[in-house]
Structure formats: structure tokens, C-alpha cells
Specification:
about 300 residues; 13 helices; mainly alpha; elongated
Length: about 300
């Protein structure tokens, strides 16, 4: 038994010898291992935080389906029931050029196509409003406190909320456009360049709206307060625009409101790009407004987060 135990004892003694660290000799300098450097890049953690919010959405297809119900109802019921094209054509006296009348009001001869372009921004508007709600819920359930204790900057937290909302808005806008085409939207003016330009506009207006609602939620801890803010802003932004009706039939004071509403410029650009409608403004004016709108509220949201976003 002793003979069998001797090899095991020798092996254990050899292992202990290799684990022992020799003491440094007198006068020698000991170099400590450098600590790992923290990643302080402005984009550090951006994708992780963005994907976290998106994952909660794309892993639950019912949320996508439910979010599309409202614009489908507007297009399928409201758009088809309020058929200005058939009304003007049937009510006009013989010999009257009804196409010219329709174009003077809607910029196109199809009111349904006119409405579908408005619904693309409609879905973006209502998706963007809930970008701020995610900030409130993260604060309420403690995730925001954990995120703020990491090396991730506060500006990155805000941009992640904006980008996840933009991603959701674009996916939903694609679905709304396909549904609109299936329901009878005019496609004779559709081009690859026009569709690409349309989604550039959607991207910009989604950034601006998401930045606005995230900015308004930075210090909010009560979801009821945030919902009140959403209801206060989303319907005026929709109805004080050219999403549903032409500006010409609105009262003068409301026309002035429409002119300062960035949603109107986004819809005007989309109608020009998708259905070839006569625009209220030049296309470069529409793009300038939506780009400025996106840049302003994204930057303001990041700057305000440095002061207001805290544990």
C-alpha cells in the first residue's frame, strides 16, 4: 500500500512545486499586470441595448399584427367609405373635368392612394410615441439603474431607444405599404428611387418623433403621465397635418398650424415620391425639414440625457 501511495505523493508534491511562486530577489522591480481598459467609445453598447428592445417585439408576432390593425381599418373602412373620387365624379355636371378637380385638391385622382401615403406616417407616429414609454418601464422595473451603472454613456441609452423605434416604424411602414397596394393603391408611378426616397423620409421622421418622445420621458417615472403626454401630442400631430384631408379645405388658422407641423412635410414628400402627386412644397424643402427635424430632436435628446437621465 505504501509503494502504491508513493507515486501519488510525489505527483502531488511536483504539482505544489509548480504552483509555488518564487519570491522576487532583493532589488528587482515587480511589474504588475495592467488592468483591462474600459471601452469608452460613444457607440459602446448601442447594438446590445437596441437589440434588447427589438427582441421583445420581433419575438412576439402578435404585437406586430395588433399594431397593423388600426392603419388597416383606416385604409379599408375609412379610405374606402370616404370615396371622394366617386363622389366628385358622380356629382359633377356633364362635361366637367373631374380629374382636374381631384388633382387641385389632392394632387392625384385617387383619394385612396392619397390616404395610404398618410397612413405610412400615421403608423410611424404611433410607433414613435411608445419609444418614450420604454424609458418609463425600464426605470420602473430597475433596468435603467443597471444600465446607468455600466460604462455605456447616457447618450447611447437615448440613441438605442430612438433606433429601436425607427426599426419598428420601418418594418411596419413596409407592411402598411404592401397592404395599401393590395387594397387598390395606384402603382403606376412606383419606382425604385421613389420607394428608396420614401423610406429615407420615414427613417428621418421616425428619428425626430422618437427623439421628441424619448426626450419628454427622461425624468418621467409614472406611466400614466407619459400616456397623457402621448395622447396630448399624437392626435394633434395627425389631424393638424395633411394626412387625411387636403390643406385647402381647412380653416386659415389651421393651415398655419399645418405649415409648422413636420409631419405634413414628410407626407407631402411621400406623395410626390410614391404616387406622383403635385406637392405643396418642393421636394428639397420637404427633405430639408424632415432632416432638420430628425437632427434637432436626436441631438437635443442626447444633450438633455446628460443632465436629466439619472438613477
Amino acid at each position: 500500500m505504501v509503494e502504491k501511495a508513493e507515486p501519488a505523493i510525489k505527483e502531488a508534491t511536483a504539482q505544489d512545486a509548480t504552483l509555488e511562486r518564487p519570491m522576487p530577489a532583493a532589488g528587482t522591480t515587480v511589474t504588475a499586470r495592467p488592468s483591462p481598459k474600459l471601452n469608452t467609445s460613444p457607440t459602446h453598447g448601442l447594438w446590445a441595448l437596441t437589440n434588447r428592445d427589438l427582441k421583445k417585439w420581433y419575438t412576439n408576432p402578435y404585437q406586430l399584427i395588433i399594431s397593423l390593425v388600426q392603419p388597416v381599418i383606416w385604409m379599408g373602412l375609412f379610405g374606402k367609405a370616404l370615396n371622394f373620387t366617386s363622389f366628385i365624379t358622380s356629382a359633377a355636371p356633364p362635361g366637367v373635368n373631374t380629374s382636374a378637380i381631384l388633382k387641385s385638391f389632392f394632387g392625384t385622382t385617387s383619394y385612396f392612394s392619397y390616404l395610404v401615403c398618410g397612413m405610412l406616417i400615421f403608423i410611424v407616429l404611433f410607433s414613435s410615441t411608445f419609444a418614450g414609454m420604454s424609458v418609463v418601464w425600464d426605470r420602473r422595473f430597475g433596468f435603467m439603474n443597471k444600465a446607468l451603472t455600466t460604462p455605456v454613456s447616457r447618450g447611447t441609452v437615448v440613441m438605442a431607444k430612438i433606433l429601436q423605434s425607427v426599426g419598428r416604424s420601418i418594418i411596419q411602414a413596409v407592411a402598411v405599404l404592401l397592404i395599401g397596394i393590395a387594397l387598390g393603391m395606384e402603382t403606376s408611378n412606383l419606382t425604385v428611387l421613389g420607394i428608396a426616397g420614401t423610406f429615407v423620409v420615414i427613417f428621418m421622421v421616425a428619428m425626430g418623433l422618437s427623439g421628441l418622445f424619448v426626450m419628454l420621458s427622461l425624468r418621467s417615472t409614472n406611466w400614466q403621465t407619459q400616456m397623457a403626454i402621448i395622447n396630448l401630442l399624437n392626435l394633434p400631430l395627425l389631424f393638424a397635418s395633411n394626412a387625411l384631408f387636403p390643406v385647402k379645405i381647412m380653416p386659415t388658422w389651421l393651415q398655419d398650424v399645418v405649415k409648422v407641423n413636420p409631419v405634413s412635410y414628410a407626407i407631402d414628400a411621400i406623395r410626390q415620391l410614391l404616387i406622383g402627386a403635385t406637392g405643396t412644397y418642393a421636394l428639397w424643402v420637404d427633405f430639408s425639414v424632415v432632416i432638420g427635424f430628425a437632427a434637432f430632436f436626436s441631438i437635443v435628446g442626447i444633450v438633455m440625457s446628460w443632465r436629466l437621465l439619472s438613477k
